[in-house]
Amino acid sequence: MTLQQAPATYPDRLAALRRELDRRNLSGFVIPRADQHQGEYVPPCAQRLGWLTGFTGSAGAAVVLHDKAAIFVDGRYTLQVRGEVDIELFAPLHLTEHPPQRWLGEVLAKGDRLGFDPWLHTHDQVQTLTNACERSGAALVPCPDNPLDTVWGDRPAPPASPVAAHPDGFAGRSSAAKRSDIAAELTRERLDAAVLSAPESVAWLLNIRADDVAFTPLPLCFAILQADGSVDLFLDPGRIAPEVAAAWGDGVRVAEPAQFEAALRLLGRGGKRVRLDSASAPFQVWETLRMAGARVEAGADPCALPRACKNPVEMAGTRAAHHRDGTAMVRFLAWLESATRHGTVDEMAAADALEGFRRGGEHFRGLSFPTISGAGANGAIVHYHSTPKTNRPLAAGELYLVDSGAQYLDGTTDITRTVLIGSTAPAEARRRFTLVLKGHIALARAIFPAGTSGSQLDALARQPLWSEGLDYDHGTGHGVGSFLSVHEGPQRISKVGNSVALKPGMILSNEPGYYKTGAYGIRIENLVLVTPQTAPAGAERDLLGFETLTLAPIDRALVAADLLDAGEREWLNAYHARVRDNIMPRLAEPAERNWLDRATAAL
Description:
The chain starts with 9 loop residues before the first helix and ends with a helix. The chain is globular and about 70 Å long. A hairpin with a 2-residue loop joins strand 18 and strand 19. It is an alpha+beta fold and 603 residues long.
């Protein structure tokens, strides 16, 4: 198909895909949002779900059959999907309440052949799809190449950004030291190698960064870590700066990506014991190793936990980054109050202004995700993205939710503030903002024994809302990287079971919220660092708690002070005093200093 023949509209694209499926004798095809690495952000060449449906969210999937199709999104996107996708073409379904495997069980017939791309699904995902097909008497069929790519005539080229070193002065440890530590762990577990399919693990292990995807400084690549500490990296050698290769020495061998499968087969012919992360490794990697004779062992990515536990240099770096980010946020909030009082500001203009304040900060390298800038009803769309079509003015008497973050060489930030535009807050919104704040404070003040997981803490943030029959349909906290992904595992705080114990050095978000469809959204988000706590006399377990990293005022105009108990009031006043003490010396403009003084006054 030539560039000129590429289907122009979504109905045309869907029809073209169906014709290609007919040609391949397939009854249907699964289109995940993910790329080969299961990352949150995918390059333009891998945005297949968006190309086919128009959906721009960061998680989802579609299934196309001959006469019907569905798109599956989670609770963050149930409103957004209806605004972006033609629901006459794709029935919108909840990813967890009505998942693809359930829908397939309802619509597949005996003898149907459902195709999938084995590079875009994990082993666990394929097993789930296989079970759904077998229950209907259908077959799940791996495709040697992706049929959607065949009809995507103007598909962009793969990314090829330069790969640069992430200096030890920011990373805190050399690549050689990291490789030695992880290799020793493989040896202790009697493993011969581990396949690294998560680019953030490769970037962390080799102290490299690149710009293959938006918002996250990653090189998209695979690597094999051998038990002797050497690494086979599958990445175009021409992309790697000479100083990077020199720093690695002989411990890192670089090969073209096309040689990856041959390297997997070589491991298999040697009967090697190989670790694969069941959460991220492509099914094709599993099958190639298994069929070649390797002894494949499912387990956690060996880099994930040490990457999550920041070293002292990284912890110092993220504190410094949050001081700069907090300064930008305070300057923005002061500007916002003045600008909305004296004129009209819309969502897109506000987001642009905030980015402008951040750009002046030392070590700034870009945003860590697209800014969520939602006024009034748009704030109720959890992962809302303002466009010229949806852009709203920030009107007096409404709530404005801004969720944003930045990438700095020494840290990654993520903050949400909900602010009142004008001076009069709706009583209901004020009460519910305070319930969210009470949950935020409860989590921020939590002290817990070592070995506790985030899922065991999640209810602390929800309890004030639960007590009034309210809740929110997203996790309470996600892990955050160090000049890496703003959403980084394995740790998280959520209802969904997560057995990963929180450990010192882990960074997470604390972001309870509340969303009233068609009216407003509320979220209060700070990043926190897991730190050891001094145990009281008689304690029988080591204790951990959180250090709040984010430094920006919480809107006092939305706080119903009578709903706070003495401890909550004390926490908020102490937090605001800390914000004032740390940020005030960084402000030169009298108007900004005056605003911060008012915004951090004690209740």
